[in-house]
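Sequence, structure tokens reproduced for reference:
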Amino acid sequence: MVSLRNRIVRLGATFGVFAVIAIPAIGIAQDAPFDPAAFDVGFEPVAAGFDQPVFVTHAGDDRLFVVERGGTIRMIEEGAVVESPFLDITDRVGSDASERGLLGLAFAPNYGETGLFYVNYTDLDGNTVVSRFQSPADGAFDGAESEQVILTQEQPYPNHNGGMLAFGPDNYLYIGLGDGGSGGDPEGNAQRLDTWLGKILRIEVDPEFTDGKPYAVPEDNPFVGDPEALPEIWSYGLRNPWRFSFDRETGDLWIGDVGQSEYEEVSVIAVDDGGANFGWNVVEGPACFVEAECDPSTFVEPAFSYTHSSGSGCSVTGGYVYRGEQFADLFGVYLLADFCSGLIWGGGVDAAGEMVFSESVESGFQLSSFGEGVDGEIYVTDFGGGVYVFAPPL
């Protein structure tokens, strides 16, 4: 595991509330130094009336696709919500618990030619399913007939299902899985390499390269050839990586990992840093968790963390590095939020070349997810039913 180098610990304005690991830029492309004191954002409504939206993304064009937790995907085209769902799999999605449901969506990099896209959901038994669907060339779509299951994972508890899917700059599919749930990772799944739980997986799903199988394991995955580890594992030591993203310019992987009783955290690693261990459940955020004493520096330390006791919230929503054109001052800035409080932060490289984070800004939303448009503009989903786009503040 290649660790982040030359970390310098900084504490925010309220000592002990925010912990920021200021690091030299891993691969961040940024036009101007980030001034955290000047951070501010606004929002414009895009569409409303969604049923518990948990993600929004694009398919390589100007359309937006909104994932509803109950099992549907709705499409926004030319500013209007298309009446018929793009996908309806409510008959096979179990959403009886708050962390279950249709949770993730990723369009294949060559979706325009293949029509292939992938979803992550919990089934009626509460287990994780990652499946492939195919949109027909004529635009009409019946998702029930095209599903091909890629992989499944038994979930011992109804929480910590992860759910994020994203194609990396290498065109492999990355899959986020939580530690299996309950509290404190009672089975130690996150540190075990014989289970997918508490991990990010990396697999090849393009049918052209899988030899008729649902997926193939890339030969350069970090644990290929290790008889005591599952070869699909890319990184481990995660509690519940609800949302992660790749910087579209540098390829850096940003992970928002939902915490246990005190710390919420965001970590960043270089795109080729396979085998990274983020430390759960030995550590939670920057602090020891299962032992009175431990050495957090033996793991990838969070770039940013905040505490529940500070009143900043209780569940981090990882976001994206801004690469749009509407906010010159935010170019190269990473955006994240908290689901419970609706607070938003920005993090970028300052004049000294170190990663620093702003104080929080109130959004007024139950911010369940960020999303990125084809043009790099950033969207958010409000769990109460709306989709918004970042806009200049009033």
Q: What stands out?
A: The chain has a mean pLDDT of 91. Helices lie at 111-114.
